[in-house]
Amino acid sequence: MNRPIVYRCALALVVLFYAGFVWWTWMRWPDPVVDFGREIYTPWRLNEGDTLYKDVAWFNGPLSAFWNAAVLRILGTSVRSLAISNLAILAGMLLLLNSILRNMYGKWPALWCLLVVAWIFAFGRYLWLGNNNYVTPYSHEITHGLFLSLLALHFQSKGMGSRKAALLYHALCGAALAGCFLTKVEMFVAATMGVAAGQVAFAILERRLFKPFLGAATGFLLAVLPFAIWSWIRLGPWPGWAQGVFGSLHYSFNPRLRDLHFYRWTMGTDYALANALFMVRTFVLATLLVVLVSALSFKTAGRRLSDSMTVLLTVLVASVLFAFRKWTGWSPITAMLPFAVVAQAFWLILARMKAKEPSVSTRDFSSGMAFLSFALFLMLKIFLKVRVYHYGFVLAMPAMLATVGFLVGTIPSWLERRGANDRLFRAIAIGAVIAFSLVHFRITVGWYRGVIIPFGEEGDRIWISDSWTDASSGIHEGRGRVLYHLLNYDLTKRIGPDQTLLVLPEGVAINYWIRRPSPTRYVNFMPPEWTMFGEEEIVGAIRAHPPDYVLLLHRPTPEYGDWVFGKDSGKPLYDWVKKTYVPIEQWGTWPFTQKAEYGAVLFKSKSLFNSQALP
What Å distances lie between residue 126 and 225, 389, 445, CA to CA? Predict the structure, then answer.
């Protein structure tokens, strides 16, 4: 089974597996309005001459926006261009993961981890939003940051294994960390803690610290310097310069932002004690199951399974667990991932300390500690409520892969060295992994099945669903049809090429699709934006540069509780729109009046009526 030809065939099957996923989900990834609209609108505007932070309000670092602008400039302005770029980054990410996980767990467990990435994370869809995937993410900073984090860990490992080129590799590690710094603060914190943990472990064992630190610091400063110069020239000295360099760091310490219902739910602090106790119970249960199967492996030590029996047992375990998925509660089990990562780190340390001749080299041990620390700190934003959906598609992915590698690689190898029936444990572990993946894949299939309505033209053509369901507000009907009609039949005819459109409260993607700019630097008008930028500042900016047209879209907000635009925030802006503009077209129901039905209203400025009436 370990022959090179068999492994190469398995690797080829994994590549075909990913190709199949790309073909099956092609251009069905993004949400046409929420989140991703900001991601495609911003680079388009940068290529049209706008300045980031100055002409486009941005609350993350500048790297992803500049990268996406360069992609659109080179490949052409389209959603397809951005998708191709992100698929290439995903491929690079998989290569890095394969290298890291192969060193930690072995080549076959690493392949299982890559399959889990495809099944659960890379193309998954578990909510009515289609933005939690690696092709059209809700924020490119989080996927770009993950790639750069893995790149930093890779270069650090290379530096640990080389004396002649150590300084160069550590400088490249520092440059990759600088890239994380220029994306999102949570990515930078996790990557830095991972690199620091690996370097501390290596310094203790090898007593080499000065050269790695010097190289990383040099690489970091050289990579940040061009952005600092650009910020000083285009945005001016403090505070403009700081915004262009420090990105989201300024908003990360805003207590009002952290108190929003959405972020408390995200972190699990809305029910902190209950979530913490659930984490403990889940981890204890998972540990008992691992101990039980390990004991069974020792009990059947003399009955080593054949290849065919191992495959049969794997299929049987996967089938049984999948059949009883309603009782096993597969999604909540991920709550124990922080404890699983910590336990694995202790396992690695104890294995290193107890072995007379360490089976793991100093470099591999330090790299393993770096990856586990990175995985742990990456979950801080969802620590009390770890899940693979929503933000977890990135934040929980390394921890999930570490757990899979530990179960199908580390523990079976440990059992084999002690004469136990390692194939029994491995078959049960792989069966559980397959069942877990299939449960989530089944949900993804259900969502993609309803994505059937075309939206946009040529390179911008995507497919969207006509309805979606969420737990708090039920079924929303007609969304796809409303967006289809207003885009394909009305907006492009009504709004002239030199006129502006403001979409409220969220939907700047519409501006991109019809290639009409928004008159204001603010791209969204949701609770985070009102909190970060201030209602008075936003309303003042819009009134100073009034749009020709205003499009009001229904935007259900289960993530923000019962928040309603024009009532809970944005009331002065909505009142001004009703006073200054005239509704000229309506699709579906009037927005925010029927909770379970979708609608849109187009308003036209009264000044346009007056100017058109003049002789």
Answer: 40, 6, 9
